[in-house]
Structure formats: C-alpha cells, structure tokens
Design brief:
The chain has 155 residues and is α+β, with helices and mostly antiparallel strands. It has one domain: Alpha-D-Glucose-1,6-Bisphosphate, Chain A, domain 4 (2-Layer Sandwich). 14% of the residues are buried.
Length: 155
C-alpha cells in the first residue's frame, strides 16, 4: 500500500485556497504535469462529479485518468477517488483555518497492482516528492500574487 501526507501553510484564508484548488481552470498552475482536466458537463465540481485528467509522464507519454469527487465540503475538505488510470491513488485535502492563513493537509493512499506493486516503495517516495512539489508551487502561486498586490498598492 502507498500512503503519505504532505502539509503546508499558506498565508491566505481557507476559502481562497479551497476555491483555487477546486477550480479546474487553475489545476495546471500548481500541478505542473497536468495537461488538461475536463470537469464534466453538469456544472461545477461536487460529490460524484467525474473529472477526466490528462497528465504528462516520462518519455513524453500522456496518461489519462478518470476520477470522482468523493468529498466536497466548501472551505474544509476536497477528495478525489481514482476510478480509471495507470496508478490508483486517491487523495483527500483538508483546509484548517489558522490565525495567519490556512493549514493544508494532503493525504494520499492507493494499492498498485501487477508489476507496479513491486515498485511501491519507490512509487511512494516519488509520489510524495511530486505532491510536496505541487504544494510548494501552490504556496508560491499565493505568495507571488500577494507580493504583486503589495508592489502594486505601494506604487
């Protein structure tokens, strides 16, 4: 079994961070290997929405996956369950308001099968590193936006 968590603090209200993470048009700005995400034809994300994602993989390959929104509690919890894809990893993100912003906790777990099962220790390390990178990028997106706003207001 692959299981890991990544925590990050972002100096923005939980509502702002939740809205950004759950906006399909923003996904590629912080999940840098995402090529596209189609959220479905039924409007905004909610429990049961089956987004289809396409990610870039090593060697120029494109990997498609079908996920399902399994939890959606505005400003508090967002979770995805893998329905179809190369690596069955589910993710749950919680948003905890703090005095100076939001504590974001991403917890992922999955059970690779076949040959991938043999590579679980390496996959776990690689995926944790990748998701930690996504979270760091997300933090930079907000910090850079804050600095741009501050510079503009000082001019």
């Amino acid at each position: 079994m692959i299981q890991f968590t990544v925590e990050i603090e972002i100096v923005r209200p939980a509502g702002d961070v939740f809205a950004y993470i759950t906006d399909p048009t923003k996904l590629a700005t912080w999940q840098t290997n995402t090529l596209s995400l189609v959220a479905g034809e039924d409007g905004p994300l909610r429990v049961g929405t089956p987004p289809r994602e396409v990610h870039s993989a090593p060697g120029g390959k494109q990997l498609a996956s079908l996920v399902e929104v399994s939890e959606y509690e505005p400003d508090r919890v967002f979770a995805l369950r893998m329905l179809e894809g190369a690596l069955p990893i589910d993710a749950r993100i919680t948003f905890e308001p703090m005095e100076l912003g939001t504590q974001v906790l991403l917890a992922a777990h999955g059970r690779p099968s076949g040959a991938m099962r043999l590579a679980q220790p390496l996959l776990r390390l690689s995926l944790k590193r990748r998701f930690a990178g996504y979270c760091a990028t997300l933090k930079r997106v907000f910090e850079d936006a804050d600095h741009s706003t501050n510079r503009l207001s000082q001019a």
